[in-house]
Amino acid sequence: MVRTKTIVFLRNLLVKGNLSPFYTKVTGFNKELYHITPKVCLALQDNLFYIKDVPNYLQVDPPNKLKLRIIRALEGYIIRFDGFSVFKDYLDKNFGAKSKSNFRRYTTRLEKCFNIDYKIYYGNITKDEYERLFKVLRELLIKRFHQKKEANYELQHLDEFKTILFDLIIDKKANLFVIYDDEKPISVRINIHFKRMAYYILSAYDIDYAKFHLGTIEMLKNIKWHYEQNFEAYDLLKGYGYYKKKWMTHTYHCENHIVYDPTSPSAVIFSFLKVVWGRSYYSLVKMLKSVGANKPYKKLKKHLFKIKNPRISQKKVSPIAIDSIHSNETLVIIDIKSDNDYAFLKKSVYDFIFYTQESFNDIRVYKLKKRPSHFLICGKTQKKALVLQ
After folding, report:
1. CATH assignment of the domain containing 151
2. How many domains does the chain fold into?
3. Same domain flag for 146 and 222
4. Rounded distance, CA 156 to CA 260, Å?
5. How is the beta sheet containing 59-61 ordered, strand by strand?
6. CA 142, CA 204: separation in Å to the nearest integer?
7. Whose CA is closest to 378, among 341, 336, 340?
8. 271, 373: one domain
9. pLDDT tens digits along 290-347
10. Can you tell me whether residue 383 is helix, strand or coil?
11. CA 211, 214, 219, 224: dihedral to nearest 10 degrees?
């Protein structure tokens, strides 16, 4: 019976630094990136390796005694920095004047409204802060995907990354990019490096700050940092093409490789059947996407998520006329940042700040003593009344 061992290519390359025994050499960007002298390997016999998501901008060589079959899978997105003498050249190539103006406006407004700090942990991080950031990252991922009403496939890998990433950061083989509001992390991104290549792994930001375009800000700052650190490219990997396409300079295809022993008839037959099935599968996926059939599938997944998670509910508030709050009513000040009982107000308050362009330090939030489901946001120049639905 043929047994298949599944390998995730980048996990072995970036984390373990070992592609033996299925590859002996990897080249890319006109140079050798990985090489190992093949040892006398035990015959694979009826076994084969199934290596997932090999970027086709890399060329791989299996040992001489093994053969390779290729399945072309999904599209990936990469930012190549060659050809850009200054970072502005990259921005000019990918974005128009309006987009570049928006980038500046987003950053300026975020920093005007909150006490923002950007930190890149690269070569140094305390264990306590490392533990805290992974706890926050988990919370942000859960919160974001509950909002999207989708299961989060990234969560299952988070503990694995937590186990390995600390040493990689200390060795400058990875970094954590964090945006802080005061001392609170509101955006966390993991990148792993190999040679002069950088790979985006995963990220999450606090959706309460969504109006401030945190995702755009942290993406732009990550790209700029990797450019300034003289990385040759920043691979954004596959998925979320609707977003990554505006940042990338090139696309590529992920490939699934089947490495097998050609002297084993059963391995030859099984590898052939696996290739036929794999190519048919990805052709079908591409065809369904082209006709929009993936949209009903996404709706079905959201519906199933609601069924599996019936207890997930969020308190919602709606705006009401400001004159519905009478001047003689007693107001009780509340702290939405430290009091979790009122965390559901954060997004409404932050949206108010975004539009009024006031500092959070100048904002006061109150509840009505006799009508505790009613709230009042007060800035220097404007007010807004809310009611809990």
Report:
1. 3.40.630.30
2. 3
3. yes
4. 29
5. 31-35, 25-28, 59-61
6. 9
7. 336
8. no
9. 887 767 766 665 555 556 655 555 788 999 998 888 888 899 999 998 898 999 999 9
10. strand
11. 110
Examine residue 111 and state whether it is found in any structural domain, yes or no. Answer: yes
Token digits of residue 330: 């007693």
Could you tell me which of 317, 29, 381, 314 has the C-alpha nearest to residue 148?
Answer: 314
Which H/E stretch holds residue 167?
Answer: helix 155-170
> The domain containing residue 258 runs over which residues?
3-77+252-290
Place of tokens 């509950």: 146
* Long-range contacts, 225-228 (Cβ 8 Å, 24+): 225/120, 225/177, 226/81, 226/191, 226/198, 227/81, 227/84, 227/87, 227/90, 228/87
Residues 179 and 262 in one domain: no
192 with 272, same domain: the answer is: no
Give the pLDDT confidence of 164-214 residue by residue, as tens digits. 999 999 999 999 999 999 999 999 999 999 999 999 999 999 999 999 999
Q: How far, rounded to the nearest angstrom, does the alpha carbon of residue 266 sit from its chain's CA centroid?
A: 40
Strands (E) across 268-342 are located at 317-320, 331-334
Neighbours of 230 (CB within 10 A): 8
Provide the whole-model pTM.
0.90
